[in-house]
Amino acid sequence: MLTGTVKFYNEAKGFGFIIDDESQSDVFVHATGLLDKVAQNDKVTYDVKEGKNGPNAINVKKA
Fold it and tell me: Which of 17, 31, 32, 61 has the smallest CB count inside 10 Å?
């Protein structure tokens, strides 16, 4: 599992971004990839699955 911090998450639209702790790159996250509710600045663990438009965070849960 990877670790990161929620940079932005719009609950109404169901998507946001996580900043990966190691690479400092943004990873897209969709509501379907969440195991826990998340908010900006939450520390999370996640896996990555390649999507149509790049990497997507899945199995996202609070650390």
Answer: 32
